[in-house]
Amino acid sequence: MEREALMEIIRSDFEIVNGDETVSKIFPLLDKLDPDRASALVVRENGKIIGVIRERDLVRGSALTNPHETKVKTFTIRTGIIDISDLSPEKVARRFIEDSTPFVIVKKDGDYGVIYINDFIMTIKDEIGSLKVREVMNPDVIAVNAHATAGRALSLMRTHGVDRLVVVDDRHRAVGVITGKDIVDRILAPRKRARMGDSKGEKEKTLAIMVESIMSYPVVSCERNERISDVIDQMVEHRISGVVVVDQSGVPEGIVTKKDILERYLAEMVPAGEIKIEVILKNIEDEDFDMEELRNDVEKFMRKFRNFIEDAVVFLYIKQHKERFRSLPLIHVRIKLSSDRGTYFATGEGWGVEFAVHATLKKLEREILKEKEMLSDSKMVKRFYEEVFEF
Q1: CA atoms in the 13 A half-sphere facing the CB of 212
Q2: What is the tens place of the pLDDT at every residue in 266-302?
């Protein structure tokens, strides 16, 4: 993508709020947001842009705290801001991946603009649109039965470090999707309003309610051999961030999210023979552990497979939970390896960053070795038939 194409999609149609305002005061601004573009607000404090607050964070904040007392900056995502002089497709994609926001903030001549994620993925569609869904999707589908409770769905999200689940029926066919936001919007927030005397919250729901009562349906789906360009069109048309991949019977085989597409886009930009490592942190600062040592460990891990994987991007997601054991925080790790040999995934948890990352790398190693063994077996079978049919 040329720089000029990026310049053309920088927009000024966004709302700015003061970080010292209370959550309750800015809810009316959400109605002004264009649903085709964003569900977030830019946050300013002491005259400076400090980040973004998403609608889901506002809703969650109002459900878990007193919205009349809690300040907006409490739930603000401290995003990176790209200076216009440093603007590039790679940096924009990386900001979307790291910040998980619906737009990226760009600073230009003392003023600010934003690049919306839908505008960006539509702009890069021609570059990666010919890829097949199977080359981009995450095959690790976390599903929940439609008759399971919302509490069970929350537990699965927490265990696997995801914010959405595919909902399936008794025959394991995809029938919907449930997100953490669905549970907050339809269960936790109404209960909070009821306790504060709001009549809208009178009919309380509990976490014992069945998933099918609050899931989003019908499910937006695709098949593994479709082009990723068609999936991007579906995402933009339906205003969704993920599409479920199903087989001909409707059984889920994977999921494709906007983040998956952006990760693949970055992987396509890696020169042949090069390994890149992207570390994305949540609820943790890089000074809490030795970042250089962590990168060295991942590089050492990748060197073990240098004869199998030539070029790749390792996306290392590290999230800190509140629980602690002997002063060590509980860490959730998700690793996605996008390479010339395919895409591999592994997740894990542990006390402390180092232990959690190493435990997850061991799981990733098993996935890669499994693939190597399969390739080795297929080569042996091929050689066998070649030798047989020579006679």
Answers
A1: 9
A2: 988 888 788 999 999 988 887 788 999 999 999 999 9
CA distance 260 to 246: 17
Both tokens of residue 98?
A: 């790291």
Which domains, and CATH codes, for the chain? 3-128 (3.10.580.10), 133-257 (3.10.580.10), 270-381 (3.30.160.100)
C-alpha span between 161 and 75 (Å, rounded)? 19
Cα-to-chain-centroid distance, residue 86: 24
Q: Strand 242-246 vs strand 252-257: parallel, antiparallel, or unpaired?
A: antiparallel
* CA 253 remoteness from chain centre: 18
Alpha helices, H only, the chain: 3-8, 23-26, 55-64, 89-99, 117-128, 150-160, 180-183, 189-195, 228-238, 258-268, 291-303, 353-388
- How do residues 293-303 score in pLDDT, each as one tens digit? 999 999 999 99
> 175 is written with which tokens?
């029938």
The residues, any chain, with a CB within 8 Å of residue 6's CB and separated by 6 or more, are 87, 88, 89, 92, 115, 123
Q: Is the pLDDT of residue 381 over 80?
A: no
Please give the Cα distance from 9 to 251 (Å, whole number).
38
| pLDDT tops 90 at residue 27 | no
Q: Which two tokens stand for residue 272?
A: 């042949």
Cβ 24 vs Cβ 67: under 8 Å: yes
pLDDT averaged over the chain?
87
